[in-house]
Amino acid sequence: MMCDLQTGVCGEVGNEEMEIIDFNQPEKTINLYYVTDPICSHCWAIEPELRRFVEQYGNYFNFHTVMGGLLEKWHDGPIDPANGIYKPADVAGHWREVGEHSRMPIDGTLMLDNPVQSSYPPSRVFKIIQKNHNETLAFDYLRRTREALFVFNQNISERSVMIEIVNKLNLDGEAIVHEAEQLAAQQLLNEDFALARSLGATGFPSIIMINAENKGIKIVGGRPFESYVDGLKKVLNLEVIQPKQQPSLSRLLKKEKLLFSKEIEVMYDVEQSAIHSFVEKELSSDSYEAREILGEAYFTTTVSKGE
């Protein structure tokens, strides 16, 4: 709060009395398409790597989320024979394996007791939020939906669950879910399906990056963080690209509301054994709560009275 009488400046004094500043942002010449689905377990598994990639390199590309339509409905035939998925009960064990391998926790017992019958209803809600609001809010909805399904064992295709998730985004859940039940919402979803096909995305997650020359690279399935960086370098035809500094943990947690240990480990290159000491160092004790579920630590923002 110091004001310098010689320079006439309150605060930090720069090296130049007058300087030219370029406020032009570099043109984003890359379009990144993330083809996904609300019930895609491997999409849940890559959240730590994808978040860091977007946070540090998102200034190089325009990010587009595309719904892929993983499950229209259950029927008598095989749904995913390669993974042994013929009926809802087959999903539970597969999801648990994905959760244990990735350390993004998945309960999975919902698929035994009250299985999701279709991924289309929550996908349509995503499209309505994306259309009426913006990509950021729609992506927040997708994140909350996956938390509800994989971790907290809620049936995200049920109307009441979808309304509750949307309401928590400070949107009108009843109105949005009602609009998502109309034919126009399915038409929006069909447009995504057509786009996914045109991009050659047959499995989820698929990350497709396309440059100004309409040449691109496709990365399918769970991959390390470095794979996405290498892919971006290739599509930009650059040997070196400059990452932005990771956001502080306090800013990231305020934005995300809930972070699992694995997500913090990947974002900040922290060992699992050091996660609690790292969080204690980065956050004030009254700003967060540390909890555990399915053997994994997670951290949430502290809810103030009246919120």
List the helices and strands and how they pair.
Layout: E1 3-4, E2 9-10, E3 30-36, H1 41-45, H2 47-57, E4 61-67, H3 88-102, H4 110-113, H5 120-132, H6 135-151, H7 159-167, H8 173-180, H9 183-198, E5 206-210, E6 216-220, H10 225-236, H11 249-256, E7 258-260, H12 261-268, H13 275-282, E8 288-293, E9 296-301
Parallel strand pairs: 3-4
Antiparallel strand pairs: 1-2, 3-5, 5-6, 7-9, 8-9
Quick structural gist:
The chain has 13 helices and nine strands. By secondary structure, the protein is of the alpha+beta class. The chain folds into two domains: about 30-200, Glutaredoxin (3-Layer(aba) Sandwich); about 250-300.
Using the CA coordinates, give the radius of gyration.
Answer: 22 Å
Largest beta sheet: what is the strand line-up? 4-3-5-6
- Domain tally: 2
Q: Return the CATH class of the largest domain.
A: Alpha Beta
What is the number of helical segments per DSSP (H or I, 4+ residues)? Answer: 13
Specify the structural class.
alpha+beta
Distance between the termini: 33 Å
Run of helices and strands? EEEHHEHHHHHHHEEHHEHHEE
